[in-house]
């Protein structure tokens, strides 16, 4: 079973509808020849309709940056998975470290959001990763495993087959400091090992594990050359069509591994 590389751009709170439309148009042009790789972008909620309209049939999927666990109701300011699906999203980020650290998403909340994504028919991109203090304390692997257990521990095989995991060390997000390819590979192998110990063989063989944290056009190839790195979740560098294209190209030239 081979895994197709997957690169997603997280635009965070950048690009209102007009700018998002312009960037989507540039991406469509820049990525016209991209093949052998799945590509997606996560605009802010308000910009999703413009991006979906621009990218429909363009081979670039649209991702929600977050979702509320409930379908609807008195949750001012929130957006449900069902709404994202209706708006044309096919994926949703769950448990991004900025949601965890700035908006109070605990492991329990992340687990509820992940189930809500599945309920809505969205494919979750589950973000996990340790802080610098946790890495320095030697607990990085345990922290990531605890995040995986809380979010995925109870899922069945079919749900697992829809999941992407993004390993994003918190100390590498938006800091310009990237995990070395060896550091990233070590954690990705641990994550795949965690999957192997809990799910049928096809799950660890098919679930894609993206690396995220200051991925750029210049470090993408060395990260993608690692056997358990199946793509990237890209923040800052996804706001520029040319640098995003170069990262997508680096992922596309990665040999497929099982
Ligand atoms: C992210 O937002 O998921 C991310 C990895 O950001 P950056 O690439 O800017 O570090």
Topology:
Layout: E1 5-10, H1 17-30, E2 37-42, H2 48-55, E3 60-64, H3 81-87, E4 91-94, H4 97-102, H5 107-119, E5 123-128, H6 132-136, H7 140-152, H8 157-160, E6 164-167, H9 181-198, H10 202-206, E7 208-212, H11 220-224, E8 231-234, H12 241-252
Parallel strand pairs: 1-2, 1-8, 2-3, 3-4, 4-5, 5-6, 6-7, 7-8
The structure holds phosphoenolpyruvate.
Detailed description of the structure:
The protein has 258 residues and is an alpha/beta fold. The chain has one domain (5-252): Aldolase class I (TIM Barrel). Helices cover 43% and strands 16% of the residues. The chain has helices at 17-30, 48-55, 81-87, 97-102, 107-119, 132-136, 140-152, 157-160, 181-198, 202-206, 220-224, 241-252, and strands at 5-10, 37-42, 60-64, 91-94, 123-128, 164-167, 208-212, 231-234. Strands 1-2-3-4-5-6-7-8 form an 8-stranded parallel beta barrel, surrounded by 6 helices. The longest helix is centred in the last third of the chain and has 18 residues, at 181-198. The chain is globular and about 45 Å long. Phosphoenolpyruvate (PEP) binds at residues 10, 12, 168, 173-174, 212-215, 233-237.
* Oligomeric grouping of the chains: single chain
Q: What about the largest sheet?
A: 8 strands, parallel, barrel
The name of the CATH topology is TIM Barrel
The level-1 CATH class: Alpha Beta
Order of helices and strands: EHEHEHEHHEHHHEHHEHEH
- Number of DSSP helices? 12
The total strand number stands at 8
In short:
The protein is an alpha/beta fold and 258 residues long. The chain is 43% helix and 16% strand. Strands 1-2-3-4-5-6-7-8 form an eight-stranded parallel β-barrel, surrounded by six helices.
């Amino acid at each position: 079973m081979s895994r197709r590389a997957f690169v997603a751009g997280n635009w965070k709170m950048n690009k209102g509808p007009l700018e998002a439309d312009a960037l989507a148009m540039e991406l469509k042009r820049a990525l016209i020849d991209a093949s052998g790789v799945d590509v997606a972008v996560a605009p802010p909620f308000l910009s999703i309709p413009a991006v979906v309209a621009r990218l429909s049939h363009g081979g670039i999927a649209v991702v929600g940056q977050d979702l509320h666990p409930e379908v609807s109701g008195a949750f001012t300011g929130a957006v449900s998975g069902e709404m994202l699906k209706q708006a044309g999203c096919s994926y949703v980020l769950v448990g991004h470290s900025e949601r965890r650290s700035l908006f109070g998403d605990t492991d329990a909340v992340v687990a509820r959001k992940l189930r809500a994504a599945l309920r809505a028919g969205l494919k979750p991109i589950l973000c996990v990763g340790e802080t610098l203090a946790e890495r320095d304390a030697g607990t990085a692997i345990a922290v990531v495993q605890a995040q995986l257990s809380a979010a995925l521990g109870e899922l069945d095989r079919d749900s697992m087959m829809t999941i992407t995991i993004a390993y994003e060390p918190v100390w590498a997000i938006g800091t310009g400091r990237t995990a070395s390819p060896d550091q990233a590979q070590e954690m990705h192998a641990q994550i795949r090992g965690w999957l192997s110990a809990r799910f049928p063989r096809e799950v660890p063989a098919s679930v894609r594990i993206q690396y995220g944290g200051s991925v750029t056009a210049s470090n993408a190839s060395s990260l993608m050359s690692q056997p358990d790195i199946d793509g990237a979740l890209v923040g800052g560098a996804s706001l520029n069509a040319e640098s995003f294209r170069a990262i997508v190209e680096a992922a596309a030239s990665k040999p497929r591994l099982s």
